Request: fold
Amino acid sequence: MPQLHALLIAINEYAPGSGVRNLTGCLNDLAGMQALLLKHYAHLQPNIRTLINADATRKGVIQAFREHLTGPQIKKGDQVLFYYSGHGSYGPTAPEFAYNNPLKQDETMVCYDSRLPGKQDLSDKERGALLAEIPKGVEVLFIIDSCHAASSLRNHKAAAEELGASRFQPGQTTPRTLESYLLADGENIYLKQKQTGQKIAVPERPFVLLAACAETELAMETKDQRGVFSKYLLEVLENAGTDYTYEELMQRVFFLVNKISQKQHPSLETFQAQRRQVFLSKVIRPNFIKNTATYENGHWRLNCGAIHGLPTDPEKLKGVKVQLFDSHKPQADSDHEVGIKSVFSTYSLLDFDQEPRDFFWAAVDFAIALPVTLSGDEKGKKAIQNLLGYKGAKKNWQLAASDAAAKYTVHMEKGQASIVLTSSGQTLYGPTEDTFDINDALNRIARWEQVLALTHLGSKIQNGLKVEFCEEPKDNSALIPYPKQQLSFVLGKTPRGETDTLWYHLRARNTAAQPLHVALLYLSPGYGIEVHYMRRILPPNSDWVKLDEVSRELELGNKTKSLERFLVLYSTSAFEEFQYEQAALDDSSGRDLVRKSLAGDDWATQLFEVELKSE
Reply:
């Protein structure tokens, strides 16, 4: 039977003479997490190990991680949880990592003895190496209640009177060397990469990360000696009966934390993992709900605005409907269907008069009308026309006035339907006998096209963010930036005769006078939408920042050409980037259920198109 292996670390008191300010709430956070696991996850036979204060030295953390989370007791199908409550910081990275790290910084955990003479923090590069040691077939969850540090935070103060200290410690100043990173199984994996001519990069492995705040923010403590993030995370899990998906959970925690601190935004990060998976469960909910409605200042507020695709035109807005669901039963039938009366940049106000309560889950029908034409046999075309009249399914498409007005065609032949590009006849989806599958695929195409076209005419911050596509040479030499938004690359052949790949990242620099919230979307050729860079806050006049957690590569596979699209979104207000995500057409698990802007509330986008060709 699958088992849960948890390593829980909390540090209130740091080594005397280290110069690190002590904290007050970390041990309480650990106790709460341990109690939750024992109470609600007894069926997973939780195997829990804790490190507290002086036990959580750098050596102790590394040793405990390897013994408890990578040892022979870890079996395929098990789950691993790493929880840390303590100080976060930063420090100069090794020169070999600087090629794709514009800030040239490691994000670090401050261990009990990290700041004693001759000691070092545990860096993100080292956590990545440890993560790679966890056996394959094991699901990994990281929960980090500490600051994601940057030098601009040194003078930051508590955001409200009810908050206590922050979990931020000023960074170390001595640059790391590649030799100083931890050894894995007797060898330094980064030195090995360098010596064998490989690209020096953190190993990739699927994981889910629940983080207390964005990378340039502080994780705060409360006056009652708890971490703000851990307090509300545990509260939501306790009250919800632990039945939330990671996405639902973090939406709720995001709202509760923001009620007392507008400068701390908890974030959910997934790498090759499922946001729709139930917390510490293997259950994945395909019909997940992406939005919430909360009662604030006399209005019901929806966490979806113009930046997410809602129309600001009053006439178009009339067709948009919002389904509201009970806060404790997000998978039940809708309780209310309401309209929207006002759309702002990052949120909207609902036309809804119910008495104040906790919150509703909300599903938004954007009322998209993708023009589609039909071809093929008449009986099949009639079946598609009948689907348009069926009220039991959302339809974000309509029949075009003419073939020339439709980019997409539904072709019917021998009782099966396919979606093809009208101009070329290229098949995008199908053939299938299930017209509801066709409807779902058309809805995804419609949403993809809507997100691709997102733009804010008249935005005052359009030129406030400089963005560049950067090629990462495989010989670890200096990256090659391209300021243009339309690019073309011809991929050569590897020594084995295969088509080569392109390593890349996008980077951004805020030249505006105010902080900007930034996210990066990847709009795949298969009509999927992935968040490659979770919304971050870039301070005014910032240096270049890499818009991704990892280096990525583009490849053609068995194709001779491809067009890859990246959309950078940025706003003066916080927005929730997960609302854009959807599965590609070949992924059957992805079915989904403003009249003026506020003063100083603005958003903008930049679209990058990268064409790949084989030589």
